[in-house]
Amino acid sequence: MLENVFKDLMKYEGLALRVYTCPRGKPTIGYGRNLEDNGITKKEAELMLVFDISRLVMQLDKRVNFWKAQPVNIRIILLEMAYQLGVEGLLKFKKFLAALETKNYVLAKEEMFDSKWAMQTPKRVIALAKYLNLQKKTGDTEKWLKDLKVLREYANTIENMSILE
């Protein structure tokens, strides 16, 4: 019986993958989710973050050919920059990326700070730049790969779930 409610709501509300203004003037997304009155829960926000990070990892795998060969601390920088700036925004940091690819971390740090991004979000850039000073620890790479595998499996499991089965 509840399945009918889901199907009806999906049918009549329709699916909107971008925020729109409903006839009552409320920002709405999904199957008629009123964001102004209902917002999202912490768990929903965490699930969105899992999917976002999972997508970014896949994009970085395809678009930044050297990122997998970098130490974990550098991959953290690239992933966090991609999250904040988008992969397209990250790719605009050509000198920074070239410095990372050649493992010239001193130059990479200079390029991070010599940017509009650093002026806009200095605390974040300072925090990320500290990763350039870290030495790779034994076990970091294995833990990173395990974490990525878990993240992908989790995102894949959720993506393949259906409440109507």
Name some characteristics of this structure.
165 residues, 67% helix, mainly alpha, elongated, 7% strand, single chain, 3-stranded antiparallel beta sheet
List the helices and strands and how they pair.
Layout: H1 2-13, E1 16-21, E2 27-30, E3 33-34, H2 35-38, H3 42-63, H4 72-91, H5 94-101, H6 105-113, H7 116-120, H8 122-130, H9 140-160
Antiparallel strand pairs: 1-2, 2-3
Helix pairs in contact: 3-4, 3-9, 5-6
Would you kindly provide a written description of the structure presented here, covering whatever features stand out?
- Helix content is 67%, strand content 7%.
- The chain is built from nine helices and three strands; from the N terminus they run αβββαααααααα.
- A three-stranded antiparallel β-sheet has the order 1-2-3.
- The longest helix has 22 residues, at 42-63.
- The radius of gyration is 20 Å and the shape is elongated.
- 12% of the residues are buried.
- The mean pLDDT is 88.
Number of separate strands: 3
- What is the strand arrangement across the widest sheet? 1-2-3
Overall mean confidence score, pLDDT: 88
CATH topology-level name of the largest domain: Lysozyme
Write a short abstract of this structure.
67% of the residues lie in helices and 7% in strands. It is mainly α and 165 residues long. The chain folds into two domains: 38 residues, no CATH class; 117 residues, Orthogonal Bundle (Lysozyme), CATH 1.10.530.
